[in-house]
Amino acid sequence: MNWSKLFFALTFIVLAACNGDxxxxxxxxxxxxxxxxxxEAWQAFxxxxxxxxxxxxxxxxxxxxxxxxxxxxxxxxxxxxxxNAKSGELTIDYGDGxxxxxxxxxxxxxxxxxxxxxxxxxxxxxxxxxDFYLDDMRIQGSRRLTNVSLDxxxxxxxxxxxxxxITWPDHSYLTRSSDMVHTLEFGNNDSSFxxxxxxxxxxxxRLGVNYKTEIMEPLRVKSICxxxxxxxxxxxxxxxxxxxxxxxSVNYGAGQCDNKFDVSLDEASKEVAL
Length: 274
Known about the structure:
- By secondary structure, the chain is of the alpha+beta class.
- The protein has one domain.
- The protein is built from 3 helices and 14 strands.
- It has helices at 3-18, 29-56, 223-227, and strands at residues 78-83, 87-93, 98-99, 105-115, 124-134, 137-147, 155-167, 173-186, 193-204, 210-222, 235-241, 248-254, 260-265, 268-273.
- Strand 12 (248-254) and strand 13 form a beta hairpin.
């Protein structure tokens, strides 16, 4: 995601408002920074989710062994697996840096540990980041996924981001914690799926302001979009709340694979294209 383009878009919103266009949302610097922090955190941990999902599918439980699924997330990584079909650990080493399918450079190590078959109820999957960078952002924290599925029609997981932190070269940082529900719906083959995300997240923006995000309508992510290097949800809405500030709302659209979404503040809105 092009964050300088995002910042320009928000700046344009402010300028348009100053020129008297009442249909444009007015973002103060603090509000723009909060929105940008939320989207940066969302995008960064969406990459971690994609890597974790690819690691979960790096298996052949029937054979009791692990085989490499041809996931684009692994194209430039060295993989090392220890374990069996019931428990194990996959180390994904991006070395000194290589570009992922979204064009962002991954550097460092992601470790995915599991206890039980990921498709079975009560299985837990842990993702731990070890000196991991996405472009120039250092991403820290851990991710816990727990299978709470009640039937085989779809797979349902609770997802927690624990002590998530993103740090930039200038030492500015944001924090991220989340408590969400992920529902996987598979298509005609095992590699085609849609992911529905519900729940909430909270954090601290790069300016030190605390905020909370609530998903108002489930966010839908399509695997076919990720194959086209689009990690944004294709639909769904979320709201960003800050004490004594107007609510910021984000609408991801009606199902199309694109890098566009609408940002609203009070009654005004603006389409952002990245």
